[in-house]
Task: inverse folding
C-alpha cells in the first residue's frame, strides 16, 4: 500500500560525482543555465508552499472513493476483479515533528467478480497513492532531486514538467509491505505543475531499481488532480480525481484504479441534550 502519508504503500499477494565533475560543471555553466536553475528553484518553492497549505485543506474534506482491483493474465486480460466504494477522508497528524496523513475508509459497497467462484487468491491492496503530492512537501522534498524537463499543454493549460528522483537513504513517501515487513521504495517520475500557482495537475511515479530482491518486477502509478467545487465556489486547490496503480511480479500482474468524487467540507456537529430535573 502507498503510505508514509503515513506513506505510499503497496501490499502484494505473492553520487558519487567526483571533484573533477563538479569543477567541469562549474566551468561549463552558462548564464542561461543559472536562469533555468533560478526558475526551477522558484517553481519548487511555490509548489512546496502550495502543497504545505493544501495538506491542511485536504484533511478538512471528505469524499467518495471507488476502487477497482484487477488481476491480469496473459495479454493483460482481466482474470478477476473486485469493486468497492468507501467514504474517504484523510487525517493529518504531526507527532514529534513527523508528518503523517492517515487515510480513513468506511466501506459502503463491495462486490467481487471472478471467473472461478472458488478462487480466493488475494488481490492487490494499494493505499495512499492520492497523496503522492507529498513528494513536494517541505518535509519530504529534501529527499528528492528535481529537474525541469520542459512543458506540456494539457486541456489548454501550459504545465511545467518536473522530473523527480529519490535520493537513497533518505525519507521515502512510499513503501512495499510484504508478509508483515515494509520496504521503502525509491520513487522516480514526473509531475505536471501549473507554473503560476504551483498546483500539481498530474504525477507519474514508479520504481526503477532495488525491487527485484523483494520479488517485484515493476511498479507504476499515475495520479490526476483537478480543482473541485464546494457549493458555488471553485477551490483554488487541486484534489485527487483518479489514481492508477500497476504492479508486476515475475508471476503475477495487478492493476488498481482509485476514483475520488463528491468532495464535501468535513465538519463535526454536536448535539447537546438538556434534561430537566
Result:
Amino acid at each position: 500500500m502507498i503510505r508514509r502519508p503515513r506513506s505510499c504503500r503497496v501490499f502484494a499477494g505473492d553520487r558519487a560525482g567526483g571533484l573533477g565533475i563538479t569543477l567541469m560543471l562549474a566551468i561549463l555553466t552558462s548564464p542561461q543555465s543559472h536562469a533555468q536553475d533560478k526558475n526551477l528553484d522558484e517553481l519548487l518553492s511555490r509548489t512546496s508552499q502550495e502543497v504545505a497549505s493544501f495538506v491542511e485543506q485536504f484533511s478538512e474534506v471528505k469524499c467518495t472513493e471507488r476502487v477497482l482491483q484487477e488481476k491480469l493474465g496473459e495479454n493483460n486480460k482481466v482474470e478477476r476483479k473486485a469493486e468497492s466504494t468507501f467514504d474517504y477522508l484523510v487525517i493529518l497528524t504531526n507527532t514529534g515533528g513527523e508528518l503523517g496523513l492517515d487515510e480513513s475508509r468506511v466501506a459502503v459497497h463491495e462486490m467481487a467478480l471472478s471467473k472461478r467462484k472458488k478462487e480466493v487468491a488475494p488481490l492487490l491492496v494499494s493505499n495512499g497513492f492520492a497523496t503522492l503530492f507529498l513528494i513536494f512537501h517541505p518535509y519530504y522534498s529534501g529527499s528528492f532531486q528535481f529537474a525541469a524537463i520542459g512543458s506540456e499543454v494539457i486541456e489548454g493549460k501550459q504545465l511545467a514538467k518536473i522530473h523527480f528522483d529519490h535520493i537513497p537513504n533518505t525519507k521515502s513517501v512510499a513503501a512495499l509491505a510484504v508478509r508483515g515487513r515494509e520496504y521503502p521504495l525509491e520513487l522516480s517520475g514526473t509531475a505536471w505543475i501549473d507554473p503560476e500557482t504551483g498546483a500539481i495537475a498530474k504525477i507519474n511515479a514508479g520504481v526503477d531499481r532495488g525491487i527485484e530482491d523483494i520479488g517485484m518486477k515493476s511498479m507504476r502509478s499515475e495520479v490526476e488532480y483537478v480543482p473541485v467545487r464546494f457549493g458555488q465556489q471553485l477551490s483554488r486547490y487541486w484534489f485527487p480525481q483518479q489514481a492508477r496503480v500497476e504492479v508486476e511480479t515475475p508471476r503475477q500482474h495487478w492493476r488498481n484504479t482509485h476514483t475520488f468524487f463528491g468532495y464535501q467540507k468535513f465538519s463535526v456537529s454536536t448535539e447537546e441534550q438538556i434534561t430537566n430535573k
